[in-house]
Amino acid sequence: MDYSEKVMDHFANPRNVGALENANGVGEVGNAKCGDIMKIYLDIRDGVIVDVKFKTFGCGAAVATSSMATEMIKGKRVEEALELTNKAVVDALDGLPPAKVHCSVLAEEAVKAAVADYYIRRGETPPEAAMPKGCGGHCATCDGH
Questions:
Q1: CA 32 from centroid of its chain's CA atoms
Q2: What are the respective helix, strand and coil percentages of the chain, to the nearest 5?
Q3: What are phi and psi for residue 6, nearest 5 degrees?
Q4: 116: enclosing H helix or E strand
Q5: Where in the chain are the domains?
Q6: pTM (2 decimals)?
Q7: Do the beta carbons of residue 101 and residue 84 sit within 8 Å?
Q8: How far is CA 143 from the centre of its chain?
Q9: Fold classification of 5-131 (topology level)
Q10: Order of all β-strands in the sheet with 37-45
Q11: Is 115 exposed, middle or buried (0-12, 13-18, 19+ CB in 10 A)?
Q12: Catalytic sites, residue numbers
């Protein structure tokens, strides 16, 4: 598979790796088909993502999309982070091989899961944009609310 220079850079030198002790939004998603697992930690203050970290178990594309997604939402308002799409992540990485596009979907879903967790921790109902597609309110993120 051919990967862009940006994918290789974010794989070899991932940004924002690790966990946040003071995270007030955490999202974890996985894909049973490929075995990738992404966990994203958010530190949100006054509606702004002031810090973000991730841990990803998976292929190079999974690491690269996690890294790029964190870069794209850091410093943004929560509402802006919810607008992140897998297509935007792929475009920011100058593309992914078709067989690896699912990794960008995981990155989008992990961000949304972390934002949903942030709202739940505050005792608020997460906005619909934070709910995974087809959730129906019964996903692990929402704790079966």
A1: 17
A2: 45, 20, 40
A3: -65, -40
A4: helix 101-121
A5: 5-131
A6: 0.87
A7: no
A8: 18
A9: Sufe protein. Chain: A (3.90.1010)
A10: 25-30, 37-45, 48-57
A11: buried
A12: 34, 103
Per-residue pLDDT of the chain (145 residues; tens, 9 = 90+): 789 999 999 999 999 999 999 999 999 998 777 788 999 999 999 999 999 999 999 889 999 999 999 999 999 999 999 999 999 999 999 999 888 888 888 899 999 999 999 999 999 999 888 876 544 443 444 444 3
Distances (CA, A) of 60 to 34, 41, 93, 107: 12, 20, 12, 13
3-state class (DSSP) for residue 121: helix
What is the rounded CA–CA span in Å between residue 15 and residue 38? Answer: 14
The torsion angles phi and psi of 115, rounded to 5 degrees, stand at -65, -40
3-state secondary structure of 1: coil
Tokens of 129: 């944009």
Q: Which amino acid is located at 105 in the chain?
A: V
